Amino acid sequence: MRPRLALSCMSFFGLLTAADARAGDEPAPPPPEASPSAPRPAPPAYDGPLDGPRGAPPAYTYEPLPQPPALGRRGFQMAVRSGVAFPVGTFRDRGDPGIVGGRSEARHLVGPQIPLTLDVGAKVTKWIFVGGYVSFAAGLAAGDLSSSCDALRLDCRSLTFRVGAQVTYAIAPDERINPWLGYGLGYSSITVGDDGADVTYRGFDFGHFVAGLDLRLSRTFGLGPFVDFTIGKYASRTIETAAGTIDGDISGRSFHYWLTIGPRLTIMP
Questions:
Q1: Angle at 255 between CA 112 and CA 236, to 5 degrees
Q2: What whole-number distance in Å separates Cα of residue 166 and Cα of residue 4?
Q3: How much is the pLDDT for 55?
Q4: Would you say 245 and 64 are in contact if contact means Cβ atoms under 8 Å apart?
Q5: Model confidence over 29-71: pLDDT tens digits?
Q6: Summary count for the chain: helices (H), strands (E)
Q7: Strand residues in 48-196 grouped as ranges (E)
Q8: pLDDT (tens digit, 9 = 90+) per residue, 195-243?
Q9: Could you give all domains of the chain from N- to C-terminal order, each with its CATH number?
Q10: 39 contact partners, CB below 8 Å, separation of at least 6
Q11: CA distance 254 to 89
C-alpha cells in the first residue's frame, strides 16, 4: 500500500507542475472594453487656458525712425550770383551833360546788364553769415547814348563794378529749403561809352536789400533764386576822350536804383 500511495502523490504533483507551466505560456487576457454608454471626457475649449502657466506678451515699445542730421552749420561759405540787372533813377544831376547832354535818367545811358557776383565769408552761427561781395556786370548802351553811338558808328557798352560788405540771416537753417534775407553796402562805379569816349560814375551804394531761397542739393551745394534791390548815389564823374580826361564832382546828386533777379549757387550752404 505504501509504495502505491507514494507513486500516486508523485503523479499528482507532476500534473500540477505541468499545468502551471502551460498557464505561464498562455497570453494575458485583453482588458475589458469600455461600455459604449460610458461618457467621454470633453476636449478643452478653443479659447480656454492651455495646460501649464502662460505669461503675458511683452509691452510694445515705440521706436521712432532715425532722423537725418540737421543741415545747419558754421564756417566758410561762398556763393555765386548772376541774372539780369535793370537800372532805374538817375546817374547824374539834371543839367550835367555827361557824354550826351540834357537827359539825366539812367535809361538814356545804359540798358539791362548781366552781373556776376561772388559772395565770400563765414557763418558765425547757423543763422548769420558775415562777409563781402565783389561784382562785375556788362551790358549795352541805351536811349540817347545808344542813338548817338549808332550815328557815330561806335560800339558803346556799359560796365559796372561793385565791392562791399554784407550780412545775411537764414530763416530755416536746418531745413532743406532755407529762405534768407540780407543787407549790404559798399562802393560802385559804372563806365559807359566807347573806347574813344567814356564816362565813369563813382559813388556809394547805401543799401543792397537781398532776399532769396536756398534749395540744398547736398551738404556741399545749394541752388535757388534771389532778388537784390540796390539804392545808391554817384558822387564823381570822369570823362575820357582822345583830347584828354576831365574829373569832377556831381552837384545835386540824385538817387539811382538797380533791381537784380537771378539764380544763386551756394557752396557749403
A1: 90
A2: 148
A3: 66
A4: no
A5: 665 555 556 667 666 665 555 555 666 677 777 777 777 777 8
A6: 2, 10
A7: 75-82, 84-89, 110-123, 128-141, 157-170, 177-194
A8: 778 888 899 999 999 999 999 998 899 999 999 999 999 888 888 888 8
A9: 75-267 (2.40.160.20)
A10: none
A11: 8
More reliable by pLDDT, 51 or 184: 184
- Confidence tier at 139 by pLDDT (50, 70, 90): very high
For residue 93, what is the enclosing H or E element?
none
Phi, psi (deg, nearest 5) at residue 194: -125, 165
- Identify the burial level of 94 via C-beta atoms within 10 angstroms of its C-beta, where 0-12 means exposed, 13-18 middle and 19 or more buried: exposed
Pick from 236, 222, 255, 247: nearest CA to 89? 255
> Contact 248/220 with Cβ under 8 angstroms?
no
Least confident of 92-106, 110-124, 132-146: 92-106
The set of cell numbers assigned to 55 is 505669461
Closest residue by Cα to residue 268 from 72, 117, 133, 125:
72
Q: Look up residue 207 and give its three cell numbers.
A: 543799401
Q: Please return the burial class of 60, using the count of CB atoms within 10 Å of its CB with bins 0-12, 13-18 and 19+.
A: exposed
Q: Which three cell numbers stand for residue 47?
A: 479659447
Q: Which residue has the cell 503523479?
A: 11
What's the pTM? 0.71
Q: Which residues of 212-232 are buried (b: 16+ CB within 10 A; e: fewer)?
A: bbbebeeeeebebebebebbb
Q: What is the DSSP letter of 108?
A: G
Q: Read off the C-alpha cell for 23.
A: 498557464
Q: How far is CA 130 from CA 44, 122, 169, in A?
A: 79, 6, 9
Q: Which residues pair with 80 in a beta bridge?
A: 118, 265
